[in-house]
Structure formats: structure tokens, C-alpha cells
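JOB MANIFEST
job_type = single_chain_structure
chain_count = 1
residues = 185
[input]
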Amino acid sequence: MTIEEIEKEVKEKLSPFRYDHSLRVAEEAKKLAVHYHIDEQKAYVAGILHDIAKELPEEECKQWIETYHLSKELLKEENKNIKHADIGAVIAKERYHLDDDICHAIQYHTIGNKDMDLLAKIIYIADKIGRKDIPDDLLPLKTLAYQDIDRALLYCLEKQEKKLQQRGFTMNPATKELLANLKQQ
């Protein structure tokens, strides 16, 4: 399947807002990939598909989770904003036959993972800076992303941790582990 065919399908499946966001993330991911000398097509495809499952109806999410034996924890209310990443990774693998690098980048774009490769880090960061409305506290992230991707990730995760604490929430264990690893570097 060509990139154009993938884009066409994504456009049909997502709302105009979500499709525009996905295009922005894909373009930002491509720029970061060029900067860091990795495959820009992989970065673009991972970016365009990163939210492919974001707007799926709940019943369809449940089917993907059951059919592909994903964690039942994803069905819990507190996981409603992260389950699309795991489901999206399965869709990338099963529907588009994409490689593990792209699938992992999609899977980890919401909570991260201590074993993220450079592509996954790029998609994570591109999802934050490839948008129309970058919050003021994340504006430095755009510059930092092109200087040191790990420092950019650390900056982003520290901001996220602070926001969660202010709202009385705790960080996902996988994200906490990633943050701890980045702090040790």
C-alpha cells in the first residue's frame, strides 16, 4: 500500500480535525527524522497513522482488544485516552502490514516506554509539537526536539508529571519508568 493510499484511508476514517492533526504530526515527524538521519517515510507513515484508532466507536475498540488479546485493562474508563495507541499499533500491523518499528512508535506515542527507539521518541514528540495549538509551556519543546530528542522527551514528561500531580492523578507506570530512565542519563 502506498503512502497516498494510506493517507486516503486515514482521511476517510478520521474527522477533519483529527486528520489535520495527523497530517501535522506526520510532517513534523518527517522533519525530525531527516534531522536525526532516520527513515523519513517510516516517520511520516507512523505519524499519519498514530491516531488511526482514536475515534473508533467503543464497541469496535472492544472487538480489537478481544480479537488481538490486548490487555483488558484498556477497557477501563481511566484508559480511554490511551487505548487507541495499542489498537492503532494492531491496525498498522494487521491492516497495513507495517513493520515493528512503525507499530511500536504508534503503540508508545501516548504513554511511552523505557525501550523506545528513536522513531518512537520522534512520534511521541511530534504528537506534542505537530499541532496548531501548542500550549505555552511546551513551546520550548519545539526547539529542544531538534537539539536533543532525549532532553525534549524528558522536558515533556516532567511537564506532564507536574500537570498530573496538580490534578491529583498519577503517571502511568510505563511512563514513570521512562521518566526515571531519562533522568539517569
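[summary]
The CA atoms of residues 82 and 110 lie 6 Å apart.
DSSP finds ten helices and no strands in the chain.
exit_status = 0
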